[in-house]
Design a protein that fits this description.
This protein is an alpha/beta fold. It has a single domain, classed as Nucleotidyltransferase, domain 5. It is 54% helix and 17% strand. The chain is built from 7 helices and 5 strands. The chain has a 5-stranded mixed β-sheet with strand order 3-2-1-4-5. The protein is globular. The N terminus is likely disordered.
Amino acid sequence: MPEQAERKRDERPRRPVLRVLGIDPGSRFTGFGLLAVEGNRVALVEAGRLVPAPGRGVPERLGELAAGLAALLDRHEVDVAAVERTFHGVNSRSLIVLAEARGALLAVLAQRGIPVREYAPAEVKAAVAGGQATKEEIGRMVGLLLGPAGRGLPADAADAVAVALCYSRRRHFDRLSERGESEARGDRKRALTSPASRANVPPCRRRPS
């Protein structure tokens, strides 16, 4: 009997695996983290940093970042990319360079036809580790959520994984919310069309002519 039950579980169709690439843009270091999401289960496929050669100008660094991301996309199938938005607390010069790095990365994703979702740093923190979490706390939470594979990552890579986790969690909760709204609409429709409901509707009366 246990063997039959086990066989039945194996025969159930598996949910499709969604490949989510998280990106934490930067002109010197760009973190990335690729997750395989299957229902409520999340596994880390690869995480690391794209690091341009030191001492090069901004155009050359941007070119290397774009080439590094393209090589990553050649290695892995990606269904959606989650990219952290520009942080407005940095100085204007750094903000410009960071925006240029994001633009180079977004262009590569667009060329590959990969959908992009963008999240502010506060959204990522709230979804993964709490609204006031530090980088260290985010790194620890990534390790707790993903196990040994998510521990000891560079800060940029851990941040990128957190962005991907943010997308995964937001998607999960959005689907639950949509399912709840759909069920509520179905309940209301069934209530309105039930015999008991129709019995309580007063008959229409014609006005005397």
